[in-house]
Amino acid sequence: MNAAAVHAAMLEPTAATLSARSLLGAPKTTGTSSIPSAIRTRRAIHSEPSRRSRGADKLPGMGKELQTTSARLWKLIEERTHAGSDTQTIDRRIWDLFGEEWAIMFTDLSGFSRQVAQFGIIHFLQIILEKKRLLFPVIEKHDGVLVKVEADSFLLLFRKPASAVACALEMQRVCKSYSARRPPEEQVILCVGVGYGKLLRVGNEDVFGHEVNLASKLGEDTAKGHEILVTRAARELAGEIPGVTWETYDVEFAGEKSCFRVKY
Question: CB within 10 Å: which end of the chain, N or C, has fewer?
Fold first, then answer.
């Protein structure tokens, strides 16, 4: 690699940088778009494109159909609907392409609809902003992956259930400390649900799976303010966590009859 190519490679944003920017809600950048214009100009002058890159420029978008995108998933799902299709083979292909094991966390804010009715949506958008400011650094600290934000809810992934629970504990403590200094209408009161299992992960766009559904039901519909509820699968793999006791909670949700409440 010549000196110009080395210099150009050093200017590219790293994967870790892009992950951190994505986590903190910064606009996504690819290629040279994140590089100052002066640097991009120097690269254009000093870096002669290779024969291979010049050829690739003539085929914009080529290769995207090979990525694990939602379009590729839904193309396989559509094939599954054809008369006489081999659904078992298609299902195996889908799981081979998209199947992963993760701990899943859903967070929700207690009293969203009630507070919007009382104080208006703009006030509550401010509360959502405060939630992001408070919790994004905690999520990053515990190596969480932010899949998406929907209104007052976060969908997060963690490699281990113990990491998800540890993150949830710190999130609750941070929110409680913040809320103790605020009037009721400005408090950030968090509800958390955690699951673990095999799921379909579609790039960084979305996830689908039974434990995704369970975590969603626990975090958004079942947990009360300040609660952390965990599915049986997540509890079994989380092990023992210092300062935490586990309480069986008999409640019906998404076809299940019980979960575990984290006592902290």
Answer: N
Q: Per DSSP, which regions of the chain are E strands?
A: 99-109, 145-150, 153-158, 190-202, 206-208, 228-230, 245-253, 256-263
Lowest-confidence region among 47-61, 158-172, 217-231, 239-253: 47-61
Q: How far apart are CA 72 and CA 204, in angstroms?
A: 14
Least Cα distance to 205 among 15, 28, 20 occurs for 28
Kindly report which listed range (61-65, 109-113, 186-190) carries the lowest average pLDDT score: 61-65
Q: What is the pLDDT of residue 25?
A: 45
Count CA atoms closer than 13 A to 76's CA, side-chain side.
Answer: 20
- What residues contact residue 215 under an 8 Å CB cut-off, 6+ apart? 104, 105, 106, 193, 194, 195, 231, 234
166 touches 143 (CB < 8 A): no
Pairing assessment for the beta strands 190-202 and 99-109 based on DSSP bridges: antiparallel
- Enumerate domains of the chain plus CATH numbers: 3-62 (no CATH), 99-263 (3.30.70.1230)
Burial class (CB within 10 angstroms; exposed 0-12, middle 13-18, buried 19+) of 80: middle
Rounded to two decimals, the pTM is: 0.75
Distance of CA 54 to the CA centre of its chain: 36
